[in-house]
Design brief:
Two copies of one chain form a homodimer.
Chain A (H helix, E strand, L loop, with lengths): L4 E4 L8 H18 L6 H15 L6 H8 L6 H17 L7 H10 L3 E6 L3 H11 L7 E4 H4 L6 H10 L7 E5 L2 H11 L2 E5 L18 E3 L5 H11 L1
Parallel strand pairs in A: 1-2, 1-4, 2-3, 4-5, 5-6
Helix pairs in contact in A: 1-2, 1-4, 2-3, 8-9
Chain lengths: 233, 233
């Protein structure tokens, strides 16, 4: 079967979201210390990580919780210092991997349809694509909030294929997460490529459904995968 | 009476918030047009201004309203393009007036206590001070949300004076708004200085309570005002 389309996850696939998150949290704590919070940097980061884990990443009051955790009263000055540092760092690190744009350009030149399949809030995911400068690269962007289902629901991958006018077997899914990207795409018969990067890198396939067809460590290696597939056919 | 302290409003007093807002809205509309919204720039800006007027500036869905206004369906891509442009522009224009920092430094050198008296959400106002790089300049920052009353409530100015350990008559209030800054400070016996800048510049005192003691067109002219006051005493 000839490959016609390639789909990508965004976070930790098109850009380094693990590094972004780590740096944003570190700089948040540093700024709060600078603003008067008397704690050690590392204990602050540990506490913040636990709070995000507990309340979820879309909760709006992580830093208020953090102050409470260390016995501080509400302090808008310290919270604001953290927020400014957090957002500045998030934006500063919202840049594609060095090989993202060259690889996507090459894939377009080769005639592949390109798409995004991502979980999250639609406006937020579009914000990422726009800040990454990638908003014009994709023929189709499927975001969970807009269609009401999330990865690994196979329906999401089917919708993506239909929208780009190919069969699932004619498409490749590239992502970092076995539980989200690989499992879902495997189920509909897409070829799957795991990008070994970020905090989900160490998760290991527990059964054949979770096995990616290919493993790459840089996005540009997708070009090698395509050659490999051609050779096999 | 010897002047001991000087209080400042933030918006359109320490930085050019009128220019910031105008530019942020213009760039929002430009980015939305670039992302596919087919309208004229000027009609878009006019509509956005009316929407902010109608729903208030802290409403979270101005751009959704804008799309609806022009007969478009929800479109996270276009909304995200607007949001990115809005925030980038807001941050880019969050810089002090050229004479803000030199003037504040000079006033500190001269031994005056410095304070901020501002309406708004505490974290947001602190964010402004931090991004302006002014967070360490003030001995006291009074924000309406934290004390539960807003300008021109005289109590707010009394609290500010008490916190900086001076009598209201020993303090000067500098702001751009007659209805908020001048009226409130006049009532507690502070000397009042209107900075003629921004969108409230054309409002005219309607009675003696609304008359500022001094009018300046640049922040550095506060130094002339102080000389004038010394001469009179």
């Amino acid at each position: 079967m000839k490959i016609k389309a390639i789909f990508f996850d965004i976070d930790d696939t098109l850009y380094d979201s693990t590094l972004q998150t780590d740096m944003a949290r570190r700089n948040t704590i540093r700024a709060m210390i600078e603003a008067g919070l008397e704690i050690e940097e590392d204990e602050g980061i540990k506490a913040l990580n636990e709070i995000v884990e507990k309340f979820g990443s879309n909760y709006g009051y992580h830093l208020n919780e953090l102050l409470r955790e260390f016995g501080y009263e509400e302090n808008p000055r310290i919270i604001a210092a953290g927020i400014v540092a957090y957002h500045s760092t998030k934006i500063a690190y919202l840049v594609p991997f060095p090989d993202t744009i060259p690889t996507l350009l090459k894939l377009r030149d080769l005639g592949y349809g390109l798409g995004v399949i991502t979980d999250g809030i639609a406006v937020k995911q579009w914000e990422k694509l726009i800040r990454l400068g990638l908003q014009h690269f994709f023929d189709s962007v499927i975001i969970s909030e807009e269609i009401g289902i999330e990865k690994p629901n196979p329906e999401m991958f089917k919708i993506a294929a239909r929208k780009i006018k190919c069969k699932p077997e004619e498409a490749i899914m590239v992502g970092d997460r076995i539980d989200k990207d690989i499992v879902g795409a495997n189920k509909v018969g897409m070829l799957t490529v795991q990008l070994m990067h970020g905090k989900h890198m160490d998760e290991i396939p527990k059964n054949p459904d979770e096995e990616p067809d290919y493993i790459i460590s840089n996005l540009r290696d997708i070009l090698k995968v395509l050659k490999e597939i051609k050779k096999r056919n």
